[in-house]
Structure formats: structure tokens, C-alpha cells
Amino acid sequence: MRVALFGGSFDPPHHGHLAIATAAANALRLDSVLFAPAGRQPLKLDGTVTSFEDRLAMVELACLEDSRFTASEIDAPRADGLPNYTVETLSELERRMPEAKRFNLVGADSFLSLPRWHEPARLLELAEWIVVSRPGFEIGSLSLLGLDVHQQSRVHVLNNVHEDIAATGLRGRLETGDPCRDLIAPAVLDYIQSHHLYQ
């Protein structure tokens, strides 16, 4: 089985997230993409986000769009209140699915910040990485990370995935009453409206 972990705030999950997951699943023949709303992200500790429970519920609804997509609580907030580290999440995924070929799906900007992550060398051993390029991203930028040949072989770059939906702008539109039907799955939009989120 080929499984990708797709972590993020998903505040809210939108068509851009689904496009990324679809492109990754198609390009790397993934059997499953686990959408994992983040508990507390170490590099984003100052931002307020919608509750984990609401984000997980919205992700569950968004995942109905493709049978390969599943919502996962693997990155739920820790009981001790400490930040969630990807290395711990990937270790837990390895424990839960030891036979699976594991991937971690991230954007290019996040991947380029890998040296700032907790235990970056171990991260590249726990999973292969699917890096989603963005317009203007130069593949040569990856050389700045100083990865050895083995590490480079564990990185797959996806080009031409157009996901330029900014969650901040999306939340701003929702706050003004714009339903954003063009950007959000109908079931997710129903959840947002019935739970009075982003108002």
C-alpha cells in the first residue's frame, strides 16, 4: 500500500487542497492520502485557528470527494499542550502502517524550511517526500538544502499543480458572507454555515 500523509491547518479545507492530493495520488499511484489537520504547529504557534474538532469534521466532509482520501486524527493536539512535530507524526504513521510505503505531502515553501524542522535528517528516512511546486519555484532551490544523493532520491517534485487559494483570503471572504461556492465543497460549506464558523 502506498500512503501519503497530507498535514496542514485545513482552516477550511478547499478545492486547492483536493487538487494537490489528487495530483499527488495520480502521479505517485497512491492508494490513500491521509488528510491530517495539525494540532499545534511549531512554526506557526502565533496564529489562531478553528478548533481541531471542527477542522477534522470539515476534512472528513471534503474527503468524500475521492475514495482515496481519508481524514486522520494522527496529528491531533497533544494532551500536554506541546507542539506537534512532523517527525513524531510520521513515526506514529510508521507504527500504524509498518508495511506501507509512506510519503509526506508538502508545499515547496514548507519543504525549503526543512532545516528548521525538528530532526530533519530523520524526517527524510521516515518517508519519501512529495513536494508540490508553485508558480515561480525553481527546482534548483532544493539544492540549497544540501541533501545527499540518497536523500534526493526520496524527494518527488510535482509541477504544474495550480493551488493558489490563500486560506486567509478565503476566511476573509467567508467572514463577509461570501459563501465561496467556487472554492469549497458543498458539504464543507454546509458545515461552515450550520456551525457559524468564520463569522
UniProtKB/TrEMBL annotation:
Entries under SUPFAM superfamilies matching the protein: Nucleotidylyl transferase (SSF52374)
The chain positions of domain Cytidyltransferase-like read: 5-151
Q: Which reaction does it catalyse?
A: nicotinate beta-D-ribonucleotide + ATP + H(+) = deamido-NAD(+) + diphosphate
Pathway it works in: Cofactor biosynthesis; NAD(+) biosynthesis; deamido-NAD(+) from nicotinate D-ribonucleotide: step 1/1
For this UniProt record, the keywords arranged alphabetically read as follows: ATP-binding, NAD, Nucleotide-binding, Nucleotidyltransferase, Pyridine nucleotide biosynthesis, Transferase
Q: Which residues cross the membrane?
A: none
Q: Which domain of life is it from?
A: Bacteria
E.C. numbers: 2.7.7.18
GO process annotations (BP): NAD+ biosynthetic process
Q: Does the keyword Iron apply?
A: no
A GO molecular function annotation here is: nicotinate-nucleotide adenylyltransferase activity
Q: Which family does the record assign?
A: Belongs to the NadD family.
The UniProt function text for this chain reads:
Catalyzes the reversible adenylation of nicotinate mononucleotide (NaMN) to nicotinic acid adenine dinucleotide (NaAD).
Output this protein's name.
Probable nicotinate-nucleotide adenylyltransferase
Species whose genome carries this gene: Tunturiibacter psychrotolerans
State the gene name recorded for this protein: nadD
